[in-house]
Amino acid sequence: MLFNDNRFNLENYTILLVDDNPTNLAVAVEHLEECGLNVLVSQDGESALTRAKFARPHLILLDVLMPGIDGFETCQRLKADRELQEIPVIFMTALSSPDDKIRGFEVGGIDYITKPIEQRELLARVATHLKIHALAQSLEIQNQLLKEKVNERTQELEESLQKLQKSQLQLVQSEKMSSLGQLMSGVAHEINNPIGFIKGNLSHSAGYLEDIFGYLELYEKHYPSPDPEILEWAEDIDLEYLRDDLPKAINSMKDGADRLQEISQALRTFSRADTTEQIGFDLHQGLDSTLLILKHRLKARETHPAIETIKNYGKLPEIYCFPGQLNQVFMNILSNAIDALEEKNVGRSFAQIQADPNRIAIATELTGQQAIVRIRDNAAGMSEEVRQHIFDTHFTTKAVGKGTGLGLAIAKQIVEEKHEGTLTCTSKVGEGTEFAIALPMGE
Ligand SMILES: Nc1ncnc2c1ncn2[C@@H]1O[C@H](COP(=O)(O)OP(=O)(O)OP(=O)(O)O)[C@@H](O)[C@H]1O
Ligand SMILES: [Mg+2]
Question: Distance between CA 63 and CA 109 in Å, rounded?
Fold first, then answer.
């Protein structure tokens, strides 16, 4: 029997019996109490509602025909009350027409018992519904627990995913940095010595040349009419032109060597082995060396004029930072600007581009305790939808193989996590894009 189920103890349950004439049910009630149930009694609908509110019975046995509000109305009000609507209601009725029974279900009852009441039937129904209700409640609790567990796991998974993405970024970044950095400093080192001796020998050669030309002048002064063979030779080699041009050639070689040295210096600044500690760094030097490395992408081609770079540097103190990493931020943002300008140039003629030249403007300023670097381009800009995703890992609008979608995610991580700064972007379709890097001065 249901109520003999040893996991289901009726003593833990309270039921509310609502009948204007409970004495009619006295025998049944007695039987219910004997089985251990705690039975409360109300004689009309209104007081039953009040009673239910205080006593919170586990089940209500409700008479239909009562003075005042009848059982159906009482049930309706009960079901409209958020705190009470879960309590199961069993109607007790002498009415036996199908309409009355259906009405009972419609207003929210779960079962009915016809009067005169048969006590074993009453007990069986009460016990069954209490049990169903208890099971439903425990199911609800289990469900809730399960939901919480699922949420917890989901959150854990999301956190691990984020961690994974972060370490992937760090890995890519340090991999990029170390291989690129090693290559660059290797190249810089290799070309530095040859440049050194080219420059040294050039300045000696310039001196020697002056000496030789002086000697030649002296010769001409004292021997104004040399042998015809000498005159002929001088004419063949166009001595006058040579005298004028050779020093110029030497000077332009010097310029070339100076530029090589500059590039080598920039390569070394850019790839300066990434320090494990923050050190003082001149951001302008970082920006300039990055621009120099990107020079081949900025200069004029057959299809388009050079990209104009407009520098508007303010006065900045040295910033405590990881210079190699910040250089990489500059590199990623400037490369994106160049990519965007190149894309804008597609389908435009040289003359058209010249009329509305490609520009990258770099401005720096100090505001309060922060150094701000703004890098702006006048490419096609991006839609708000794209803008919202540019810092996401692997987000790219570029062709497969052209972009990995990591550049800005890495830049954001470097600026915001490694340097506690901010990296923000504003963009307008048809006008261009600006990235603002704000860095605390550190120390
Ligand atoms: N200056 C810009 N103008 C217009 N769109 C830009 C600009 N900078 C970035 N974007 C957009 O942001 C996207 C993400 O840039 P991000 O540098 O992270 O990746 P990527 O350049 O596509 O690939 P890579 O990993 O090679 O840098 C780009 O694909 C582009 O759509
Ligand atoms: Mg990029």
Answer: 12
